[in-house]
Design brief:
Elements lengths: L4 H23 L8 H19 L1 H7 L2 H24 L15 H36 L1
Helix pairs in contact: 1-2, 2-3, 2-5, 4-5
Length: about 140
């Protein structure tokens, strides 16, 4: 793609907006269509576009293989951590009301936002890892 200047410049201009939209979908998942899964897919698509346009060597400098694998675990830990925190506060697993007993709607908003963030991180990291593994296998 080095000779395709238009494709490279279009990707360079679009990727920040794709990332911004992915974060928006994750952040507003509890009050609008979307959420962690959809936002994670959008975030991963920005990375995949970057890899397709600039190559795997450049993309590894942006997000190395050693980072994408632990990110998947981090997202699961955030999700499970919210559930364990609600249990430690005296509620059931993922009983968001326990996060702010004085104002349960605020606790629900916080809990759902954290869970959506964890799901978004996990989905994005797993998709990036799968894409990296497939491209690595095809290069051999």
């Amino acid at each position: 793609m080095k000779e395709n200047l238009i494709v490279r410049e279009a990707a360079r201009l679009l990727i920040p907006f794709i990332l911004l939209f992915g974060f928006y979908v994750i952040a507003h998942g509890e009050i609008s269509p979307g959420g962690g899964f959809q936002g994670g897919v959008i975030l991963a698509s920005a990375f995949i576009l970057y890899t397709l346009v600039y190559g795997s060597k450049d993309s590894e400098r942006v997000l190395s293989f050693r980072v994408s694998d632990p990110l998947a675990s981090l997202g699961v830990l955030i999700y499970a951590g919210v559930g364990v925190a609600t249990m430690l506060l005296g509620g059931l697993f993922l009983d968001y009301n326990e996060l702010n007993p004085a104002h349960p709607p605020a606790g629900q908003a916080l809990g759902i936002s954290l869970v959506e963030l964890g799901v978004g991180i996990t989905v994005s990291a797993v998709m990036i890892t799968l894409f990296n593994e497939i491209t690595r296998a095809l290069r051999k």
